[in-house]
Amino acid sequence: MRCQKCHQKVVIKISRANAKYCKACFIGYFEHQVRRAITKERMFSPEDRILVAVSGGKDSLALWQVLIQAGYQTAALHIDLGIERYSESSSEKVVQFAARHGQKVYTHRLKEAHQLGIVELSGELDRPPCSACGVIKRYQFNRFAMENGYTVVATGHNLDDEAARLLGNVLRWQNEYLLKQSPVLEKNEEGFVKKVKPLYRLSEYEVAAYSFLNGIDYVVEECPMSESSPMLVYKKALNLIEHQSPGTKQQFYLSFLDNQKKSPLPPSTMALHSCPACGQPTSSEVCGYCKIMSRLPGPAQKVGGPSLT
Ligand code: AMP
Ligand code: FES
Ligand code: ZN
Which CATH number fits domain 38-217+229-270: 3.40.50.620, 3.40.710.10, 1.10.10.60, 3.40.50.720? Predict the structure, then answer.
């Protein structure tokens, strides 16, 4: 089988686009999709200082690599969740990648900041690890970017992540969440920094193939806590449909975005203000992060900032 662009040997078939590529043309296709997302959605420009949220998995490392190669100014923020083995090997991959590319990585370690990893911390709070984890990560990404002059936070969410999130939001008709389902969330006066998802047009399979073909050394293991996450169920359901009818996943998410542009949902009525405990923006009395911290036992938890690794 020959590449549809240059007739070299095919290494990948992409059913949703009815395409087959050799290694070089696939890498070209992938990077073109990322560049297209960045320019079409006006995510950032060369003047921006981009904080890439890097977990050590394939998505965020692939994203970081594309941004570095394209010459953008980047640094990474990694959250060490304190999950034995998994967090150790994740942090190791991030630090090794940064060293290989001469880039800076900042690490926020939960065990240093709170003397607890995410598993123990969620146990104390009696809530699922993934929900506390999401609050902590989003908080640290925003706060670190604001305090250190980064103009944009970029995450490695891909098409599968976004389609699964959309399915979850639609199943419950969660309008507030649907409003935030965009590859770009602009900064606002209240203190949220701009957030972007440059891989939103690329499937999980394509990101894995790109990382593999580029020799990116990423942590293959999924977070052991994610086994109980509803997102996995939504992903499985979408994959089942995608298998029967290739292209459905991208149509589901990308058509939602098109419709949002043509006839947007009514804007949010949620008013934001500064959290009295930490100063970060929130729509509740105190922010989700401070609420979590106030419920932990022992002396008042300090709001820990990342340290330079
Ligand atoms: P997930 O929700 O695990 O699929 O992750 C989505 C994106 O969030 C990743 O692609 C990263 O950009 C970011 N992210 C997830 N976990 C971490 C982490 N521990 N440290 C830094 N960024 C993370
Ligand atoms: Fe958050 Fe696993 S608990 S990534
Ligand atoms: Zn707060």
Answer: 3.40.50.620
Res. 10: pLDDT tops 90: yes
Structural domain boundaries of the chain? Answer: 38-217+229-270
Position 205: which residue type? Answer: Y
More confident site: 295 or 53: 53
Residue from 60, 68, 145, 99 nearest 309 by CA: 99
In short, whether 133's Cβ falls inside 6 Å of ligand 2 is yes
pLDDT digits (tens, 9 = 90+) for 173-213: 998 899 999 999 999 988 999 999 999 999 999 999 999 99
Closest CA to 210 of 62, 54, 34, 52: 62
Residue with CA at minimum distance from ligand 1 atom 1: 157
By the CB criterion, residues less than 5 angstroms from ion ligand 3 are: 275, 277-278, 287, 290
Least confident of 44-48, 266-270, 271-275: 266-270
Question: Of the ligands numbered here, which is closest to the C-alpha atom of 58?
Answer: 1
* Any ligand 2 atom below 6 A from CB of 57: no
Atom of ligand 1 nearest to the CA of 156: 10
Q: What is the mean pLDDT of residues 163-182?
A: 94
Reduced to 3 states, what is the DSSP secondary structure of residue 73? Answer: strand
Tell which atom from ligand 2 comes closest to the C-alpha of 137: 1
Residue with the nearest Cα to atom 15 of ligand 1? 55
pTM greater than 0.85 (yes/no): yes
12 forms beta bridges with 21
pLDDT at position 301, please?
A: 53
At 15, phi and psi to the nearest 5? -60, -40
